[in-house]
Amino acid sequence: MPSRKFADGEVVMGRWPGSVLYYEVQVTSYDDVAHLYTVKYKDGTELALKESELRSQSSFKHRKSQSSSSSPSRRSSSRSRSRSRSPGRPAKGRRRSASQSREHKDDKKKTIQETSLALPVSVLFESLNCVSSFHQKPSENNTKRYNGEPESTEKNDTSCIILEQKLKPDLEIKRVLEEYSLRSRKDDKKKEEIYSEKKTFVAVKPVEKVPSKTKELEFGGRLGTFMLIFLLPATVFYLLLMCKQVDPSLPNFPPLPALESLWEGRVFGVYLLWFFLQAMFYLLPIGKVVEGLPLSNGRKLQYRINGFYAFILTAAAVGILLYLQFELQYLYDHFMQFAVSAAVFSLALSIYLYVRSLKAPEEELAPGGNSGYFIYDFFTGHELNPRIGSFDLKYFCELRPGLIGWVVINLAMLLAEMKIHNLSVPSLSMILVNSFQLLYVVDALWNEEAVLTTMDITHDGFGFMLAFGDLVWVPFVYSLQAFYLVGHPTTITWPVAAAITVLNCIGYYIFRSANSQKNNFRRNPADPKLANLKFIPTATGKGLLVTGWWGFVRHPNYLGDIIMALAWSLPCGFNHILPYFYVIYFICLLVHREARDEHHCKQKYGLAWERYCQRVPYRIFPYIY
């Protein structure tokens, strides 16, 4: 294994990704596996750089001293030659003076060009503006006045300094360099050497660093994740058993059912049939193929966007079953057994995912699930994007079996309510719950491409947490209100229903418009439709929106989620708190996600995120939190 060149805490010069400029950085750590240095810039930005992208400060001082010492020698030589000539030859003397001026300008350009790699951006722009002053006529330079007094040479140099931002976009630097033609035409060999080192100097924009060992553990670390593996299934089964009781009050703990009543092979077969039917719909060659965000190695995965088509085909299949008089109430009668089957399947899938991740390359591991602890990595997910050929397991489970299954379960509860209570039409409460949640699912599938920019896809690995959440928690906990209404019918008036509908529409509008602003800006910040949006530029090349919904609170999509969750629970009345478990859970989940997003964004964007937090002080709830 090659030894490292720079030690922790050492101050060196680090190349800024996407440019040829070097800045002063401090080495904070070194990854022995990926051979990357984690460095910290003066503005707080932390990046991972290769050893070839770091230079010692002494090498820059040596280069600068060489370039600066070359000009005086030439000027001294020119002056000595000028003094040796006879005063009686004025014409040649004037021509020699013009030659000296051109030589002086060339030396100035060369000095700036050779030291531009080591200078900060502000100094570079100062030098560029000073060079431009040499192109003016002497009479213009001498007639400039400041407060009525002739301007000295020192003042003229000082006036060239322009205060620039700490981090200028790479395109602006490139434009200025081209404008002043600061490209060496005689030193092509040196320029080739700069740009040919493993071709790392021609990157368009920085990419995330290769995943190293996870140092900061979430969810209470190893002990917390171990407890959650048992607590999550227990919570699901507790909620379902409570809904079956006549009095679902919290102190009234439900009796535990017999173990043999929780399992039935036929139910497990139906669940497998459902899962593989959705997998078949996913593999159909319909819908467009898009690229996801760049991975740590710069590669982009391709995804087929056909979730909405899968929903239409599923609706057609369910319609055929109802036409053939298949009792969809079977889902309600065996609801607990379906939940157990889904939990067993998600556990088996999680074991398979962890075993296969042990052979995955280092760059394909999840940045948050590579701690080296079995329980933690098993829970959070060790591999970022596990695939079987082109079949992306995480992306498929994110929207298909659980989300579409949620709608099918709601429909089964609606039919069960009509049959058990001898209703010709569903209750108004059941209609509202089904309609609101159907809108949410259809919106997610219609805007399927937006999920590619979420933390679940770009950051979280695929382990027990996401497998259980997608396949068990979403379909069986999110349908809690509809399941509750079957055994505990609630009557609401039309004015109350109208008020709840307005509340849901407000939440949906905030949720959808905020997500659309964010996704469109991420995909194409130069879109003319987004010209009215203001943003704070960051060192990563991305921008932080400070207008629209993202200038109102930092996470407006979470605010819309919570408002919609409340609207889904209100049709169940206020007799019991059980239907509002989803609201309480959703608030806790989003507060946790918000805290994780805050930490991630602070590390990623540095000082730009602090400026954004000062501009937008409220996180989720305006004037509250």
UniProtKB/TrEMBL annotation:
Output compositional bias ranges, type Basic residues: 76-97
* Reactions performed catalytically: 4,4-dimethyl-5alpha-cholesta-8,24-dien-3beta-ol + NADP(+) = 4,4-dimethyl-5alpha-cholesta-8,14,24-trien-3beta-ol + NADPH + H(+); 5alpha-cholest-8,14-dien-3beta-ol + NADPH + H(+) = 5alpha-cholest-8-en-3beta-ol + NADP(+); 4,4-dimethyl-8,14-cholestadien-3beta-ol + NADPH + H(+) = 4,4-dimethyl-5alpha-cholest-8-en-3beta-ol + NADP(+)
Q: Spell out the Low complexity composition-biased ranges.
A: 66-75
Domain Tudor: residue ranges: 4-62
- Which Pfam families does the UniProt entry name for this protein? ERG4_ERG24, LBR_tudor
Q: Topology versus the membrane, per the UniProt entry?
A: Multi-pass membrane protein
Report the locations given in the UniProt record.
Cytoplasm; Endoplasmic reticulum membrane; Nucleus inner membrane
Q: Where is the composition biased (Basic and acidic residues)?
A: 101-112, 142-155
Q: In which pathway does it act?
A: Steroid biosynthesis; cholesterol biosynthesis
Q: Which UniProt keywords apply?
A: Cholesterol biosynthesis, Cholesterol metabolism, Cytoplasm, DNA-binding, Endoplasmic reticulum, Lipid biosynthesis, Lipid metabolism, Membrane, Nucleus, Oxidoreductase, Phosphoprotein, Receptor, Steroid biosynthesis, Steroid metabolism, Sterol biosynthesis, Sterol metabolism, Transmembrane, Transmembrane helix
List the InterPro entries hit by this protein, alphabetically.
ERG24_DHCR-like, Lamin-B_rcpt_of_tudor, Sterol_reductase_CS, Tudor
**According to the UniProt entry, what is the EC number of this protein?**
1.3.1.70
The residues forming a coiled coil are: none
Per its record, what are the GO molecular function terms? Delta14-sterol reductase activity; DNA binding
- Transmembrane spans: 223-241, 261-284, 305-324, 336-355, 466-486, 492-511, 532-553, 573-592
On the tree of life, the source organism's domain of life is Eukaryota
* Membership in a protein family: Belongs to the ERG4/ERG24 family.
Name of the protein in question: Delta(14)-sterol reductase LBR
Q: Which organism is it from?
A: Dasyornis broadbenti
Corresponding gene? Lbr
